[in-house]
Task: structure prediction
Amino acid sequence: MATVLIHNATVTDGSRRVRAWLQINGERIAGIGPGDVPPRILSGSDSVIDAGGALMLPGMIDSHVHFRQPGLTHKADIAGESLAAVAGGVTTFFDMPNTVPPTLKVSDVRTKESIADGASAANYAFFIGASAENADELRACTFENIPGVKLFMGSSTGRMAVTASEALKSLFTLCRDVPLMVHAEDDAVIARAAERLRREWPDGDIPVTAHPAIRTSEACLISARHAVELAERYDTRLHLAHVSTADEVRELLSEGPLDGKRITAEATPLHLTFAGPEDYETLGARIKVNPAVKSAYDRAVLRDALYSGAIDTIGTDHAPHLPAEKEGGALTASSGAPMVQFALPLLLSYFPAELVVEKMSANPARLFGVTDRGALRRGNYADIVLVEQTEPYSVDDSMVISRCGWTPLAGSGYRLKYRVLKTWVNGVLAYSDGRPTGARAGRLVDFRR
Result:
């Protein structure tokens, strides 16, 4: 097997940064150490890469993406979006189940795995979804290679909304050993808010700026509170997806390290970056997502929650739509935005690398039980990203690899201070110097259960 040596890189152990080297042998990390490369390591390497002082990080684990396959491939597919992922330093992704058909059976998961096998540039795993009818399927599931269960709780997504109390009890009881990721928004609160706004705009043209007045903080808090109450009652491993409000953070989440927590939470780069009303006025439906981007105060509390440990992971909620699907107002423009390609450079532009690695690599690996990934450690898979600090630059749509061809960062005024230089997936160079290499080295993720 060919060996690759990366030297003169900057690595962090969580408390300090040091100059270091790393050797790849096949698909694993053969060695890593501080300072100069030992002569025997240098002489035993087939190729040598001088990192020039760039940050060397473990590949990011994006535990929340929508790659749209099967059934929605006019928007995106696994092959194409995985190229956007490695361009953004994301070496592993967990895809959500709201495809067409929805991923409600183990056989549906296996179908997705067969699509990704040989086509994905990044490592992959697929959530199985909860519905009001698939309790028996979930009880029989061994969760081999499946990160967890995704529940749309009180937020309608086709066949996947679950609101009945007995169905919820069964589901929360089942998920004691595997994470239950919950999208928590209350449909009744949303419906009342939408009806009120329809009366204010009788022609039906409710502007996108009103989106957070429909998908309100109250809708999030009521649903998330219910989820936490059920999790505490049934000792569920609850993971609250895309937390968007200060109220959720302060009322429902516990500060501190991940270890030992049964209730955990995720934030997204969109909710950590954008805020209303200013960004809605500038970007319109480009930042229309569910749950809605809220106020600058909510954003500030979410950012603080990363440092305090109240927010445990960052997932992009990458959800591409074609530009035509993003046209319209608060009730008609599609909700969702692409983010996997630029999340890491964006987050590094205003958070310390140590924090980003914790929330987007180490903690997802620990929370979901990912085997041999999430850290630059001898014996782990060689999922590695080199990132350089650069002069601030703006992102535009021409830079987008995703099929949708646009990004919410274009025209936003946000300037990034980092670029991804190279990404390795299982020891294979998947992205280098501005473009994917075309390598399809992604493999199915293993989980410790």
About this structure: The mean pLDDT is 95. The CA atoms of residues 136 and 248 lie 32 Å apart. DSSP finds 14 helices and 18 strands in the chain.
